[in-house]
Amino acid sequence: MDSDNLHLEISYLGSSGIVLSTEQKTALQVSLASVKQKNNFRKIFFWGKILGFKDDYFIVQGVTDDFLKNRKTLYSLNCMEWSNLTIEVTEKLMETASKVRGRFRGDPAHEYEIVEIVTKDGESTEDAHQIKEEERLACVIQMIDCEAAVVPRGAFKLTPEGNVLANNNYKGQDQTDASKLSSYFHFFPPENMHEKTLLAKASHDKAIDFLPPIEEDIPRGCWSIQSEHANNLVTLRSLWWPGLVAFNVINQPKFGYVYVGLGEKNQDLPFML
Predict the structure, then answer these.
(1) Which of 64, 114, 158, 205 has the greatest CB tally within 10 Å of its CB?
(2) Which residues lie below 8 Å from residue 149, measured CB to CB, with a gap of 6+?
(3) DSSP secondary structure letter of residue 173
(4) Whole-angstrom Cα distance, residue 149 to residue 102?
């Protein structure tokens, strides 16, 4: 969600229970203007909020020349003071973070200890791993970005140089297109796009069909899509990540997504569908 239009765009998600107080919106507008200038961001987006016991993490992401490459994430506990989330998310760190259960504390320095029983040669020993909450935060944000961040088809374009930019020719989608899952893409660096069949490639526009479509997500039914506001707005909800809601305003280049939740994936989803 573009921070420049935060006051307006957050209202599109009010029916989904995503709201910010007047004080929070004002603090965000003032502080993010400074963050944008200090970091030379072209755009800064309000990513959302992860709820904690002690404090909540307010999260934003800034971009420069490319909307996907080198995207920087920052977090704050008070909407005014921001810290760069510079943790390198490795495969090992992601594996450790996935084993942490329960809500976030709201303390970046808090350290979780994960104890596992390892059996070797008939003997069992305890194997302990530690992970800081700031590291867990980085992992969860990346997981949500990868699995649930979405944008409408055509909203971004891939240049011949390989840069991802906003598509100035995008004027929005009509009600019919906006109501289809095939009209939405994951907003995360694409992988294995070369594996698409020749038949699928034939109907694609390389400039705009460079992101993974959400209609191929497994299991089927992991997205909920519905029309609101007298059919002038379409919202998508991720059932994998409860709290992630995307919006798409009909026939206008207004769209975005926000996550407000506990930072926990719904692992029971395959058994619920």
Answers:
(1) 158
(2) 186, 187, 188, 244, 257
(3) -
(4) 23
